[in-house]
Write the structure tokens for this entry.
Amino acid sequence: MENLQHTTLGEFIIENQKQFKYSSGELSRLINSIRLAAKIVNHEVNKAGLVDILGEAGETNIQGEDQQKLDVYANDVFKSALINREIVCGIASEEEDDFVTIEGKENSHSNKYVVLIDPLDGSSNIDVNVSVGTIFSIYRRVTPEGTPVRIEDFLQKGNEQVAAGYIVYGTSTMLVYTTGHGVNGFTLNPAIGTFYLSHPNMEFPDTGKIYSINEGNYVHFPQGVKDYLKYCQEEKDDRPYTSRYIGSLVSDFHRNMIKGGIYLYPTSSKSPQGKLRLLYECNPIAFLAEQANGKATDGYVRIMDLKPTELHQRVPIFCGSPTMVEKAEAFMAKYPEDKNY
Ligand code: P6P
């Protein structure tokens, strides 16, 4: 018997589509195409553990089918779902060198939205059965409708996003998204393929005791980050904090949003621009963070104020509970010369 007490994702979209400042039906079709793709990818991710039966990527599986790398597979699934719903005029993806112009569908150049996606973030964790995620960012095109999409449609500041979210394929599969009116989380009941509103109005606690960073890079960090880490670790006031970092941005971000915490991927001598991608990782995460009482900066400047210059550009990111991000920024401010990425 389906749980009739809880709102489904489909019902939630209909109940809230008047908040979407553009055509109500368009948001529904966008989120519904992502919902469908999430279920398909979830099924494949969950059986990835059978890889020695199913065949490594690049080999053929027991059905004699070519086994795709899961991130390539996820990319294909999300692209197909978005293209088939005839709602986007272009797609950018971590798995695609350049943006994809939707051709072949009638009037695809008249579609109003572009989607930027990291189809399977943290995919190296699949082989060790650790959670992974999909991250998406949605904009209205800025070039004339009816013409082929252009790079300007993708290089928009994070402030211009109309929706953003992630799917976390964890102990349960959740879809978490915002259209600028708060953040809501939906948990998949895999038995019936329905997402239920399980986490309404998600918000970061103002502060927390969890910091998420790859401390193995300590010697390569800017001095401000080193000072902040020592602050987190000293015996004083509410510290030392707890270090929690699983190598999957979506999972670390999701846990910190629920419990309170900060995620940092700073610049380093090894990654002078940082590692995470502005357009399809940092901007959507920043939109979610700010909609959930949190903050997201590059250590100095708000992520969503950064003007993108390249499709796959990397930026540093400090995101999470607002007082924790502000404390980290205070340490960074002592070294303005480090803002040189
Ligand atoms: P490192 C995964 O590759 C990812 O993009 C994020 O999900 C994760 O937080 C980070 O990179 C891990 O990077 O350099 O610490 O292994």
